[in-house]
Amino acid sequence: MSCAHGICGSDGLTINGSAALACQKLVKDYDYTKEILVEPLQYFPLIKDLNVDLEPFFERLKSIHPAKIENIAVSDSKMKERVQSVEERNSFDDAIKCILCACCVAACPVMLKEDQEFMGPAAVLRAQRYIFDSRMGNTADRMRILEKPHGIWSCKSYYKCTQVCPKKIKVTEAILKTKKKVLQELRTKEEQEG
Q1: Residue 122 lies in domain
Q2: Distance in angstroms (rounded) separating the CA atoms of residues 86 and 131
Q3: How remote is the C-alpha of 181 from its chain's centroid?
């Protein structure tokens, strides 16, 4: 209630049926002549009152990291500054804004009704951040992780994640962009093999 800036992401709630950060919402934003219903975030196990267990959320975020982490793509053996153009940075800039509030997961119809094992929009967004970073050296490994069951292909592009994102991240567009990149890599691999 104190910051009103939506920085920490720790106050995600369901307000009148929609995931949101409580610190960014004011009573005047709603029709306060009617009851305003405040509930815990959907999808997550309830701990008590409005508190939910976000451990499954953080486990999914960890799942997008390859077992062998080769983070930096280095062209030669000497360590030097890894230069990145503005265009290269812009390709994943939106994903860096994510504050891990889990509102996108709580709003995702796929996770709520269709595939509760789906890794979720936040995890795919985090993977997108690494896949499009020109300085990373393990993008193929990350794409293979996204291709697993309950991975990127479970997303049905309902755009609910984008609608509720308190940082105005175009989550669905990032997921679609990542799907396109994965498909391009698959085609390239098939052409090289065939």
Answers
A1: 53-193
A2: 16
A3: 16
Instruction: Classify residue 11: in a domain, yes or no.
Output: no
Three-point CA angle 131, 114, 102, nearest 5°: 50
**What CATH number corresponds to the domain at position 123?**
1.10.1060.10
**d(C-alpha 133, C-alpha 71), whole Å:** 10
**Alpha carbon distance 23, 43 (integer Å):** 21
Number of domains in the chain: 1
Nearest of 73, 57, 188, 189 to residue 130 by alpha carbon: 73
Q: For 79-119, what is each residue's pLDDT tens digit?
A: 677 788 899 888 899 999 999 999 999 999 999 999 999 99
Kindly state whether residue 1 falls inside one of the protein's structural domains.
Answer: no
The pLDDT tens digits of the residues spanning 37-92 come to 999 999 999 999 999 999 999 999 999 998 765 555 555 555 677 788 899 888 89
